[in-house]
Structure formats: structure tokens, C-alpha cells
Amino acid sequence: MLTIHLADHESPVVWTPERELPVDGVWFDLCNPTPEEIRRIERMSGFAMPSREAVSALGLAQRNRDDERTLHMQVAMAADDGGPDTPLGLALDERFLISLRYAPSRAIDAAATQWQHSRETTPVSVFALLLETSINEVAGEMQKIAGDVAQLSDAVFVDARLRTSDLQDLMLCVGRLEGRLARFRPSLLGFARTLGFVENRAPSFLTKAARSRLKVIASDLKTLEEFDDQLTEKLQFLLDAILGFINTAQNAVMKLLTVASVVTIPPVILAGIWGMNFAHMPELKWAWGYPLALGVLLVSMLLPLAWFGWRGWLGRD
């Protein structure tokens, strides 16, 4: 579909093959375009549109380029449905902005809505507006992740002791949050590289006001990158804390097993001695030999426990 946003900010026009492209179009938005729509845009712009494979190319050096009058840029945008990143191709010059995408985008829809209510008429202003709405969309998602991280922190640091299965579930939550956060890093990197590319090329149609606006956007991007670093460090801290709690629980189990093994050593020795098959053992003829032996075994177990308690080695765990 080819949607055309006009300079007079009227309702956007959805192009059909039987009509000509409007001469006052400022922003031409291609979403899953047909071959005929691609041909019409190429005829109007005077340059070839890249294929989907080219827009999705991984090579960073070829993503941004310019010719005599047009800046060509490519950005990987986070998909609205949480799936793989979707490519976004942009072509900017003093006549128009062309966007080429292959999936719906809330950010682009928001930019289209804001364009209808704005008073700006230049393609550079559309480009800046598109970056602003995309960055705002990422910022909103990161704010949601920050709220989930705060809830996760409250769930980890509680007074009650958590079971190992609960701690494992919390580790899975950390992994899911990190995965959600990682989805937006390619977009932030792509926007930063695109802004740097436009500022370095400094085309003649980039006015002083536009440069100032792009600098503000670059500042917002830097803030989001710092916010991303903070969230990443917080998630790493929570992961380390969860692993520490699991290690503490395991150490408590090992401590219990160690105490049990030490406490049972004396009675095992005594039982082994009294279990020897010698013909002359005085205790065998004692009337109270059996209960006395049981009492000695019990005392031999209590004495190590009392010593451990006196040394402070027996705590709540």
C-alpha cells in the first residue's frame, strides 16, 4: 500500500493505479508495496528503490549512503507484535521523504496522525517527526520494562525465604525482561547512526532549525541508551542476587548434611565396638547394659550438637 501525506495536511491519500501521484506529496509511505507502486515511486523520484533483501542487509557500511541530492538510510525497527525486527528504508531529499517498510508500525501511524495536525511542510520535518515518534514508542516500552523490573525486585527481596523453584521462576523472569529490552537496542543503534549520518552529510536543505531539532533527538537517544544501561545493570544485579540466594540455600543444605554426618560419627563408632563378636565383653552380662548403651549413643550425639551451638554454628538455617 502506498499512502501519500500532503503538504496541506489534509487526510492522507491512498494511491490506486488509475490515478497520478499528487504533486504536493511530502511523505510517500510504502507498506508491503506492490511492483506497480514501486515503479511509480521510482519514476517519480528518479532512483531505484532497494529490494527487501537490501533493506534488511546486515552490512552496516551499506545501510546509509547518499547520491547527488538524496540521502538513503536503513533502520531495523522493533516489531509491534514482539517478533523479529522489521526493516525500514528511508529516502530523504528536499522534495520528499519516502519510507519503505514491510510491517505495520505504531510509531509510523503516530507520526502520520501528528503530521495532519502540524504546520510544517518540509520533508526534513517529516523525517524528524518520524524519528521522534519512533523514539517515543521505544521509550514507552522501556518504561513498561522498568516497571516490571521494579516488581521483580520487590519479589526477589522479601523477608520470607523463597523456595528454589520460586527462585528459578524469578530467573526466568529476568531472562524474559532482558529479551524484551534487547529487542529495542538495534532500533536505538540504527536511529543513532542515521542521525549521525544526516548531520555529517549536512545537505543544503537541512536548515538551522532542523539541525537543532535533530540535536534534541540525538540527546533523547543518548538518554535512552543510558536508561538501557541502567536497566541492564539492574537485571544483572537481580540475577546475581537470585543466584546468591540459591547458593545460600544450597550451602544450608550442605551445612545440615555436614552436621548430621559429624553428629552420627560417635554413635557409629560405639555401635561398631559393641557389635564386635568377642567372647568376653563385660557389658553383655550387665542387667542394664542395653539401655545404658542407648543412652551413651544418645549422649554422644547431643555433645557435638551442644558444641556446635556453643560456637554459634547452628543458626536459623
Compact summary:
The protein has helices spanning 35-45, 52-55, 106-116, 123-156, 164-182, 185-201, 208-263, 265-274, 289-311; strands at residues 2-6, 13-14, 25-31, 65-66, 71-77, 86-92, 97-101. The chain is α+β, with helices and mostly antiparallel strands.
SSE layout:
Layout: E1 2-6, E2 13-14, E3 25-31, H1 35-45, H2 52-55, E4 65-66, E5 71-77, E6 86-92, E7 97-101, H3 106-116, H4 123-156, H5 164-182, H6 185-201, H7 208-263, H8 265-274, H9 289-311
Parallel strand pairs: 3-7
Antiparallel strand pairs: 1-2, 1-3, 4-5, 5-6, 6-7
Helix pairs in contact: 3-4, 4-5, 4-7, 5-7, 6-7, 8-9
**Structural class based on helices, strands and sheet pairing:** alpha+beta
Our estimate of the beta-strand percent is 5-15%
**Average pLDDT rating:** 82
Biggest sheet, in brief?
7 strands, mixed
Unreliable segments of 5+ consecutive residues? none
Q: Element order, helices and strands?
A: EEEHHEEEEHHHHHHH
Rg, Å, rounded: 35 Å
Number of helices: 9
Straight-line distance between termini:
66 Å
Number of strands: 7
Shape label: rod-shaped
- Estimated helix fraction: 55-70%
Total domain modules = 2
Strand order of the largest sheet: 2-1-3-7-6-5-4
Membrane topology: Multi-pass membrane protein
Pfam family, one: CorA
Subcellular location: Cell membrane
Catalytic activity: Mg(2+)(in) = Mg(2+)(out)
